Amino acid sequence: MKKKGSLIVISGFSGAGKGTVAKRLVKDYGYSLSVSATTRAPREGEVDGVDYYFKSEADFKNLIDYNGFIEYARYVDNYYGTPRAFVEKELAAGKNVILEIEVQGALNIKDQYPDAILIFITAPSVEALKARLIGRGTEEEAVVAKRMKRASEEAEEIDNYEYIVINDDLDECVHNVHSIVVSRRCELKQNLDFIEETKKGFEQI
């Protein structure tokens, strides 16, 4: 009997490396990564349909009207949203699906999918986080300041997550996230159908 896939919500401060962690989970363990839609401009090297679906604000709002997103949120002057059709299809096929989304959206997902696993990725310290944002070299000082201010607001919501994983060493961080997912799939409540089948099997012997 094929089990439905797990829905993994990965959030984290801008610069904490959540995107890199998500891509490694896809590469190393075969997870599916839901590609978000956004109204922000592409960064250098980003590809439409791979990194994000880059939308105009009008197109994005049109999808909202047609219930095309599981969740969406406005973050630092841009919209981000999770397309519904892909997620439902992959979960039904037994795939573990990663949603890399902001705090507002994560809590909305938990309301719709109570079994979703909420994981928050963070840098080892606030100082390390700021250094990573500056080190990107892709954003002006004013944008870095805005992202740090947003991170301080997000810090107030960390208590709503089930797991916190510090991204100090990338390999260790990826392994820890995968271990969380595996352990959740082994929980008793995730295996009630299997237990029932096992009991019936013994009755027939």
Alpha carbon gyration radius:
18 Å
Strand percentage lies at 15-25%
Helix and strand composition category: alpha/beta
Straight-line N-to-C gap: 20 Å
Q: Largest beta sheet, briefly?
A: 5 strands, parallel
Query: Which architecture of the domain at 7-34 and 94-203 does the CATH hierarchy give at level 2?
Result: 3-Layer(aba) Sandwich
The top level CATH class name of the domain at 7-34 and 94-203: Alpha Beta
Please provide the ordered H/E string of secondary-structure elements: EHEEEHEEHEHEHHEHH
Give me the CATH superfamily of the domain at 7-34 and 94-203.
Answer: P-loop containing nucleotide triphosphate hydrolases
Total strand count, please?
Answer: 9
- The average pLDDT score comes to 88
Within the largest sheet, what's the order of strands?
2-7-1-8-9
Helix content: 40-55%
